[in-house]
Structure to design on (337 residues):
């Protein structure tokens, strides 16, 4: 297995990269070439002020076996290799490798890393691995062979709604009181006489204006307003444009009285909706616009054959009231002696 260190994304073939993601252990939008290369352009919307890219690829007889999308930075007081996309705005990360190749790819990767800038890094610190990722036990086993310390912790909950084929079937999986509340709020909005309607953004010609509207709704939440620095706004715009161009943007708005009252930014990828972010205008809270739009989103997903709605990171109580099951992403640290 021959490894190569890449210091830029341009040296990769995006088609080859994405083909491996689609065959890999974690086929998620956050591992696609277009997402990670965009993330790297701003280092996660300014999350990392100092970072050195170290994309590692492995080939056998010209065949791409695996990609370890890494970067070197100081984190928690020591120099470590992190996964590109870490930490805050990429909900799922992992190695890019086929299941059958994982064990030997990871073993060869750690052997290669033993000779890679040995003075500059102390270990691996990988965030946002799905709790079902085979990378977790594989890294633990490889670390033990080398006498490394390996610690695995739950990093964040990622509540997920399983959709059983249609909206009415989904509602039967929700607590009876909550099922009544969902129906009541939707009916109240629809019967309000205030022109309640919702739509999905389809027209690229209007996309920039829709992004402006979405960011305006986001920043009505004080914590999200602080999050939306200039560079983070640039990153959000790039992510939305990237996902639209590649066919997995799912951005929807709820309008009341002709004004945008709520928005849902999702990714429509691999037969699932992935709930990335949202915004609500609190002037319309009497109609519960966030809940109403979420009900429409779940109805659309169920009726259009999507198998799950993934709320992604965050354990807000309302997610479980909509019937989400508990799942998690993990942080794993493998530290050299």
């Amino acid at each position: 297995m021959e490894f190569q260190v890449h210091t830029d994304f341009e040296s990769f073939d995006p088609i080859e990269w994405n083909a491996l993601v689609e065959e890999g252990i974690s086929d998620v939008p956050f591992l696609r070439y277009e997402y990670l290369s965009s993330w790297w352009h701003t280092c996660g919307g300014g999350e990392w002020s100092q970072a050195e890219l170290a994309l590692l690829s492995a080939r056998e007889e010209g065949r791409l076996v695996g990609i370890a999308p890494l970067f070197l930075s100081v984190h928690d007081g020591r120099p470590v290799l992190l996964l590109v996309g870490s930490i805050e705005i990429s909900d799922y990360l992992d190695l890019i490798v086929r299941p059958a190749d994982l064990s030997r790819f990871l073993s060869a990767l750690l052997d290669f890393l033993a000779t890679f800038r040995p003075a500059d890094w102390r270990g691996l610190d990988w965030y946002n691995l799905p709790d079902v990722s085979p990378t977790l036990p594989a890294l633990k086993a490889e670390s033990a062979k080398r006498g490394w310390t390996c610690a695995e912790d739950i990093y964040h909950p990622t509540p997920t709604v399983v959709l059983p084929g249609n909206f009415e079937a989904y509602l039967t999986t929700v607590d009876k009181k909550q099922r009544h509340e969902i129906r009541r709020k939707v009916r109240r909005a629809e019967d309000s006489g205030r022109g309640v309607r919702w739509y999905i953004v389809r027209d690229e010609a209007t996309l920039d204006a829709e992004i402006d509207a979405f960011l305006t709704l986001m920043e009505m939440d004080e914590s999200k307003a602080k999050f939306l620095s200039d560079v983070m706004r640039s990153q959000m715009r790039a992510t939305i444009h990237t996902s639209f161009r590649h066919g997995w943007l799912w951005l929807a708005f709820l309008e009341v009285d002709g004004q945008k009252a709520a928005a849902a930014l999702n990714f429509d990828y691999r037969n699932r909706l992935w709930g990335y972010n949202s915004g609500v205008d609190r002037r319309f809270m009497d109609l519960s616009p966030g809940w109403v739009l979420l009900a429409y989103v779940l109805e659309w997903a169920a009726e259009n054959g999507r198998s799950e709605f993934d709320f992604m990171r965050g354990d807000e109580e309302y997610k479980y009231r909509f019937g989400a099951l508990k799942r998690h992403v993990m942080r794993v640290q493998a530290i050299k002696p």
Residues 291 and 318 are 9 Å apart (CA to CA). The chain has a mean pLDDT of 96.
